[in-house]
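>> Question from a student workshop board

For tomorrow's exercise we were told to take the sequence and the ligand below, predict the bound structure, and bring the output to class. My setup keeps failing. Could a helper post the expected result so I can at least see what it should look like? The ligand is zinc ion.
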Amino acid sequence: MTDVDPYRLPTTVTPSRYELRLEPDLEGASFTGTVAIAVDVHEAVAEIVMNALDLEITEAWVEPADGWRQPAEIGLDEGTERLTLTLAEALAPGPYTVQVQFSGVLNDKLRGFYRSTFTDAGGTSRTLAVTQMEATHARRAFPCWDEPEAKAVFGVTLVVDDDLLALSNGAELDRTPTDDGRVAVRFADTMKMSTYLVAFIVGPLEVTEPLDAGGTPLRIAHPLGQGHLTDFALDVGRFSLDFFEDYYGIPYPGGKLDLIAVPDFAFGAMENLGAVTFREVLLLVDPARATQPEQERVVDVIAHELAHMWFGDLVTMKWWNGIWLNEAFATFMEILTTDAYRPEWDRWTSFGMERSMALDTDALAATRPIEYPVVSPDEAEGMFDVLTYQKGASVVRMLEQYLGAERFRDGIRKYLSTHSYGNTETTDLWDAIEQASGEPVRAIMDSWIFQGGHPMVSAELLDDGTTLRLRQEPFRYLDTGDDPDFAGRTWLVPVLLRHGSGDGEGTTERLLLDGTQLDVDLGTTPDWVVVNSGGSGVYRVRYATGLRQALAGRAQTLLSPLERYGLVEDAWAAVVAGASTVEEFLDLARTFADETDLSVWQRLTAALGSIDRLVPDGERARWQAHIRALLAPALRRLGDEPEEGESDRTSTLRAVLFEAVGTLGDDEDVQRRAGEIDARSAQQDAGVDPELAAAAVRVRAAKGDAALFDEFVERSDAADTPQESLRYLGALADFSDPEQFQRFLDRTLTDDIRTQDAPFLLRRSLVNRANGPTAWTFIRQNWDVVNSRFPSSGIPRLLEGVRTFTDAAVANDVRGFLDEHPLPQGAKQVAQHLERMQATVALAEREAPKVAGSFR
Ligand code: BES
Ligand code: ZN
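>> Workshop helper replied:
Here is what the output should look like for this input. Compare the format with yours to find the bug.
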């Protein structure tokens, strides 16, 4: 192989064990360290090349097993993020120890070894030092072979003040006092693993008593004073460990497990082996005060990270192009686990929303194949997107449903046991499932992984009445005409087809649509046909008129909630693509008046929210009345308050409708009640339903004045759970009043709002119908501050809000600016946001002039 890729390290020298000693100085925001790396030299070399970045290297040398130490000349290259140690005399093949002494800064960018702060109960600001290594930041904490394939054992020692908690991947072995009054905490060796999974956490944290989870000591670590919010996570952690040991058929690969809440965190959570880190809001929760979606998110995230302990940590991708499988699979397992933990939450139905998000990007020319070449660290960072997670998990789910859960699981077990402690390519998984199932798994999956986009499958009954003709074509919102191979693209589409007569259950058939067309002999003439039976297929369905009418009349009796969800979803996608109209969509929406499922209503109200942006001001009052007429009956059916024993999803549905009627419908009665409910929750009234309490906050914000703004700021700061704090904080982005909105914008660049939260809040402010363009102007004007202040992964996420812009002039301004200010870490995502924005503008141009006619 020629050495053309400056980001890949030579494999002439490979590490097997790191002995790492780190001394963080929390107040001084710095650290020093030494590392002794046991390496194998495979061929004679005079140079050892590894990764290091933003570190000062003070000294380095190399020692053979028995011999004299050879000092090394130190060369750092910032561009390739490498450290080269040059030796006077070449090393013969064999084992050596590489020693490096270094120092660095505990940064504020939430990556590598960084600082996080919180204010304790006494009002004092406290500091932690914590790590975030994935994807390529371990090199900022210590010199290392920072590539997933360079697996090694890590023996960590942290030198800290005796009153601080120190955690790492392994269990604490011993604490030895140092000369200067501190203590050296030594941790057990890790299993052989990748550098991106290493973690150290030092600070004024507390930790719960260990809970014995099937032999694994499980604890929750958290900033001082939050111990009362840990029971839920402990229960979920224990459940998940048990679930995975059973599903994978392999014991938990770590020695202990700590789940650690960190006040400043760039991502949601991180799967460091045995020391999983989380945003506070995704770990610490009081189930009596949290909404079902808030609790569900906590379960999801814990399950997701623990799924990685095997899939990702024990078996790891060779390189970052494989990150999609790591994340897609963990997302799939997350849903599976949450579904097992709380079957009544019907998690596979609500997963429809996540698939919609993925397909909304995948319907663009700027989409990408799920698996995609990755060279530079920026490109690795760009992989963590909706196509990796949500589309990836959707195609995994489609495969699982097509093969059957057991055959799929058998393949997973085989894959994990074959490759434990090793590294893999995506195809290794398909091969394992193919062997376990005897199905053409690799061919099917290659068609979904290596090309972007997804198909629209159309169905018509031929004149003989018994032959169903299925055809596929690629689905896309905008015809950009610049992609010659697009029109001919096909997928191997696993189709579950159900057909029958009357209200009967019908018969289900498994088919593989290979090529553009498939004729299926049904044997008899069906009353109805469901093409994506079960609703897990990653494709849109278009029924010929007769078939569509047959389903529409029977949707509530014949279709599962996820199938009904798909019907609404596909109908709305057709509107965005210009293949259907708002009028047709609203006609369909009216047939859902009796709908009872949360996800279906969420899909409907989301579409109504999009239509809301198309309505001219002069027609708004009439549109609001239309919304009320559409939603109020369903809200009334549910009653004002939760009934004894009702399901969580029902309570959430009440809140979804309540919020939509109060905001989109501008309903005064709901707004008045929102005020009452929020006042009661301010009094800590335990009788207030958390769902309605959360919805009330958003309803109030839409109509809020300066006094309410002040109140929300105060309640966010004083809240005693992270969820409530975020509820009030997030609602600041929803104010319609321009003056309050400006106050919100100004706060996003101050220390009043954590840099971990600001990008999400700014995204939400871009979506604010009245003020989105103002938010854009603000971001544009403060572009340099935004980019230097926030974690880099936050910027492309923040920009996602521009997708909702309907005004061509604003859209042009966005496009012009972002063309001139490219984001290296998010080039693809930005291109997608811009194209999606263009689709919104096109929708507005088509529909706005006539939209008033569609709700007469
Ligand atoms: N490995 C990721 C965290 C991560 C993301 C590290 C991007 C580096 C770059 C972790 O397993 C993860 O997926 N976290 C999610 C939460 C999850 C429940 C979807 C996240 O942080 O958004
Ligand atoms: Zn993950």
